[in-house]
Structure formats: C-alpha cells, structure tokens
UniProtKB/TrEMBL annotation:
Encoding gene, per UniProt annotation: aroQ
The protein, known as: 3-dehydroquinate dehydratase
Residues annotated as binding substrate: 80, 86, 93, 107-108, 117
Lineage, top ranks: Bacteria, Pseudomonadati, Pseudomonadota, Alphaproteobacteria, Hyphomicrobiales
Role summary: Catalyzes a trans-dehydration via an enolate intermediate.
Record bears the keyword Protease: no
Keywords, alphabetical: Amino-acid biosynthesis, Aromatic amino acid biosynthesis, ATP-binding, Helicase, Hydrolase, Lyase, Nucleotide-binding
UniProt cross-references to SUPFAM superfamilies, sorted A to Z: Type II 3-dehydroquinate dehydratase
Amino acid sequence: THVLVLNGPNLNLLGKREPEIYGLQTLQDIEDDIRQLASNHQVKLTCFQTNQESALIDKIHHHGLLTTNPDEQIDAIIINPAAFTHTSVAIRDALLAVNKPFIEVHLSNIHTREPFRQHSYFSDKAEAVICGMGAFGYTAAFNYLVQKYQ
Ligand code: DQA
C-alpha cells in the first residue's frame, strides 16, 4: 500500500500561520507523525506540499496514473487542498481523472468560518472528509486507510 499526502497553499507556514486557527504544529511535525505510522505499518508514503495549483495537479497525475514505476504508484490520497478547496475545479478534475480514493482533511472546522469556506469542490467526491480536528485529522485519515488496505 502506498499513500500520497498532499498539502496546498500556505500550509508550509503551519506553526507560524494564524496558530489560533491552525495550531502550533508545523507541517514537518505532521508529516513526521504520519511517516512514523507508515513505517510501523509498512505502508509507503509520499508527502508533498506546494503553493501552486498546477504542481498539485501534476503530482496527482504522476502518482495516480502516469508513472510506470510501481514504486511510485499510489493506492489512496490524503489531501488538504487549503484555499484551493473553495476554488479549484481543476484539482477536483485531476482527482476524478486518476480515480483513486481520497480523503479531504482540514485542520480547522471550515463550517464555522467565513461563508466562502463552507463550499468544497472536493467533499462530494471524497471517500471521507475530516475537519476541525487539527493535526490529528491527518493521522486519523492515515489510520483509516491502513485498516482499509491491510
Ligand atoms: C484549510 C481551510 C481552508 O479554508 C484554508 O484556506 C486553508 C486551510 C484548513 O486546513 O483548515 O488554507 O484547508
């Protein structure tokens, strides 16, 4: 089993960025926690963060469909599209194109925030949606996938 963990724009600033909303853990901390779980369960893990929409799309295409290297082929995706959640038909279409199950994660509870955050271009196609659990949402999503695939 191989899981791809994708994080969108501004999530490189976790720990420094609006900590009252997004918490004090850095993205490095979050990825380290998932990496630990992955090695415990002998699951392959690829983590990627970018501020660019096209880079997310290319990563989804590569690992989800285009690569012929079995070591790079993934079974499922955990994605926090960040602000692209509310804007990106293109990332939604990329996920649908590769046809891999994905879990949508948000650190904050987007439903208690500004109205523009309450619509997601992903949720109706996600296998599961987690929001408001902070960094724990990523490990919850990962543990779910581990029990699903083992
Ligand atoms: C976020 C919520 C989004 O609305 C916001 O644009 C983010 C982070 C979250 O993890 O809570 O950048 O996806």
